[in-house]
Every structure is written in structure tokens, then in C-alpha cells.
Amino acid sequence: MTADRAGRLWNHRSARRGASATESPPMAPARFKRLTPVLAAGLLALAAVACSERRDAAPDTCLDIARPDPSAPQAGMVWIPPGETRIGDDGFFPEERPVRTVHVEGFWISAHAVTNGEFARFAEATGYVTLAEREGPDTGGGAVFGPGLHVRDWSDIRAWWRFEPTASWRQPRGAGGGIDARAAFPVVQIAYEDALAYARWRGHDLPGEAEWERAARGGLDDAPYAWGAQPRPDGVYMANHWQGAFPFEDSGADGFAGLAPVGCFPPNGYGLYDMTGNVWEWTKDRWEREGLRIIKGGSFLCSDTYCHRYRPAARQPGDETFSTEHLGFRTVWRGPPPP
After folding, report:
1. pTM here?
2. Cα–Cα distance, 194 to 176 (Å, whole number)
3. How much is the pLDDT for 306?
4. Domain boundaries, the chain
5. Alpha-carbon torsion angle 323, 186, 218, 44, nearest 10
């Protein structure tokens, strides 16, 4: 990040000081000047990571993950049969309404979010450099959740986020925060074009919203969660999301204080892991405004008191040109059905 870009960021923050709490948190200026209150609300919904030091007692892996191979596009994919599916939910947030029924053709989708190890294989094979790793205007760095030491107004969500100029998929929280021993964790700090580049290397695409939501529901069209009617059936956590005093501490009651490796929670009815919780995921469908894409599924940063979006119907806008530490993706292949 150039000194000029750093100066522009500081000026952006200073100019916005005193704005309402519904506005966007402090991020890279050129890319985030486009952010509107609805996107700011989305970022609030996506929040939060513990303000205290994270606990890293989680396992390094929960699934065996195959090496990605562009010559084998079906590998690691699950077939989703064609059919009618319910999209949306009338019981939660306005952007999820109205509920409608759509027909979705059959397709294959990744059993889990793309991992650091899989993305590393792609970068090694192609020399690809992500938007967060590049130098120049409107490039470099990403958003990291975690306030500074002197937050005066916790109601101002700008204080909860910071722009980290050294953040990238290789070090999601910036310098000193690498991904050693985290090959099985979802890759994050991935902009829309980065996700699409990986998908095309595999001979895949990114899912449309209806495809994604049909897959996430796992055949349970009338249930609010990917596993049924209750958020924690019999007291069991079914997805990685926030527990504890928000936004001060994630207690890790679900087994993870922070991001989890893929596949640590039970799969849904189609055999797909982490369709809700852990990381938000890119879709190829546009939000209502230019430059934004629909992201789905909630993340490990979702608190029941501020977000409650670890559900198939949950949807928020994601800025195509920016990346965060809680946004990843999975791919689809629109090949022939299984024999």
C-alpha cells in the first residue's frame, strides 16, 4: 500500500468521523466510498471477531481434502438434483422477503468451501495474484474485524473494523498472521474476481443465489436452518458462529473461537458442509446496486444478537473489489448428472 493510499485512508476516516452508526466501518477509501447504509448494515450483520486474543485450540483439520485437479472437474463435488425450491424467509430480515418458489436445474457443488490448501495449489499452478496482494490504486489489503485499544463509542460500527494494508489470503489478519498448519481452513480475503478466477481454473463457476440456497437447504425447504427448525437441536451447535458477549468475546461454546477448518460440523441433507456459518460465500448474482454481489450463509462472526444469519435464506451485499477475513467461496460445476 502506497503512502498516498495510506493518506487517503486517513482522510477518509477523518472526513467520516461523527457519522451515524449505520454507516460503513472504516475501510479502504476508493473502494468503500461506494458503500451505502444497506451495505454498512450488512457489514454489521457480518461482524464480529473477539476483541480479546483469539484461542487457537481448534483442530487443524476435520476432513480429508483432495488435491484440486482441473482435469477432474467432478472431484470433490456433490450432485444437487433439479427441482422446485423455496427461496427467502418471511420470518427474519427484510432483504430475505418475499418467499418465492423457483425451479433450479441440477448441478454439482463443492462439498465444502475452498480451502487455503486448494487455493495455494491454484496460485502455484497459475501464478495468480489476488486483488489484496496487488499494488496500485484500489488494490492491496483487506478488512479485518477488531477494534483498536481506545474505542470511545461502541455503537459506531466503524470502530469495530479496520483496514489492514498487509492482509491477504496468505495472512488474513495482516503481517504475522499466516496460514501455516491451516491448509484445511476456508480461504478468506478473497475478492469476487479472485473467486471467479479459481472457479474457471477448475472448469467451474460460482453458484447463483438460487443454486446456492437450494444446496444449502439440503432438501428442507420449510425449515429456517440447514438442519431443521431449531438453531441448536437438543443443545447441539450445528454451525460455527458467535457465542458470548458481542462484540467483546467469542466464548467458543461451539468448539471454535474464530474460524474453523472445513467439515467440523455435521453435513446437511445433501452431504454439504458449512453451508451456513464459518464463512460467508460469494455468489455470481448481483445485489441491487452496481459493484455489489450477493453473499450467502453467515459466518463465524455472526452473533444471535446482531446477526443471526447462519441460515440458507440470509443474504447480504459484498463489494466485488474488496475482501474480508470472513468471506470465502465454493464453486459449482454444471456438468452431466451422475449415472
Report:
1. 0.85
2. 23
3. 80
4. 3-333
5. -40
Distances (CA, A) of 328 to 186, 278, 306: 7, 9, 21
Residue 164 pairs in a beta bridge with: 142
Instruction: For 23-62, write each residue's pLDDT tens digit.
Output: 233 334 344 444 444 444 444 444 433 333 344 456 899 9
DSSP state of 157: G
3-state secondary structure of 158: helix
Question: What architecture is domain 3-333?
Answer: Alpha-Beta Complex (3.90)
Label residue 330 exposed, middle or buried (CB < 10 Å: 0-12, 13-18, 19+): buried
Task: Return the C-alpha cell found at 317.
Answer: 451485499
How far apart (Å, rounded) are the C-alpha atoms in residues 289 and 279?
A: 23
Rounded CA-CA distance 212/281 in Å is 9
Backbone phi and psi for residue 126, each to the nearest 5 degrees, phi listed first: -115, -15
H helical segments located in the chain: 3-16, 29-32, 37-46, 116-126, 192-201, 209-217
